[in-house]
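pipeline stage [seq->struct] | target=Glycerate kinase | organism=Amycolatopsis cynarae | residues=368
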Amino acid sequence: MARVIIAPDKFKGSLPAKEVAEAVAAGLRRAVPGTETLACPIADGGDGTAAAAVAAGFEFVPAEATGPTGERVRTGYARQGAVAVVELAAVSGLSLLPGGVLAPLTANTVGVGELIGRALADGCTRIVLGLGGSASTDGGSGLVRGLGAKLLDDGGRELPLGGKALLDLAHVDLTGMDPRLREAEIIVASDVDNPLLGTQGAAAVYGPQKGATPEEVALLDSALGHFADVVDPAMADAPGAGAAGGTGYAALTLLHARFRPGIDVVLEMTGFEAKLPGADLVITGEGSFDEQTLRGKGPAGVAEAARRLGIPVVAMAGRLALPPETLQEHGFSAAYALTDLEPDVTRCMAETAPLLERLAARVAADWL
């Protein structure tokens, strides 16, 4: 009887990682009855990080917090003992913008700080902060405000929320910060290592995705640069400072967080490597398999871990944009795409689960 570990990331816009794993498992078992499947949904610090923790046995703790444009949102974090997993996308993410209306200059991360504060109040002393999918480019200024900091202009007045307002920053008052932070360890988990500023920075690379025009990108980059000048200019170049609209910067400088690749954190959290011995095959995947996949995304981390034990890894994707030789160089034995079954991408996204089941039958025929 074959033993298969199924460790996919989400198929963005169509299916969460847990449901991807369930569909693949159903297809394998239908094709080869008796196949033992073990689901291990993953994430890379962005959307789905808390869900991956819950799938691995963490408890979901519901909460309310401030959304990206000031409205209250229902959210929560994942907890296991003294460890909390706080996912930025679940409280300050693009998907939570009211009516989907982008707010590149004013969206903020206050709710992330509030959620960390809730975890601290609940007794958590190790906070994994998953960064990705943010609606804002506020440098994480909202994050620290949600934990009690004040950002003041030269008249001693508190600034409005959002990245644009940072142009008027004169002083950051940390005296009201949650004292429990002194006893806490903060881990920033992200799949990007961009600096805060410049052509590879938070505003230039990710601002347009959040609705920023070229002029607004330049304004936000200047605002973030001024924020860094006031707080700590040297840390603007730190790997991960530009993650999630610069939230990484505030976490690294003002919360004294430690940056780690998101997939490494998630694989540890889910006990992935302990599940590998005895496996005959590992299946991973995500919606689009392309060059970005190989740069710190979840499936690449899964392949690296399985390759160390000599276990073949198969990728399943919505669309595949990598040649076989590149995949093999990065530890993938083969790759399969939904577009092999259904060329219409719209239908692929609408019918992801049944198509995954069918595609899993092909994998079973080739590998089991």
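stage status: PASS
auto-comment: The first strand starts at residue 3 and ends at 8. The chain has two domains: 3-41+271-367, 49-263.
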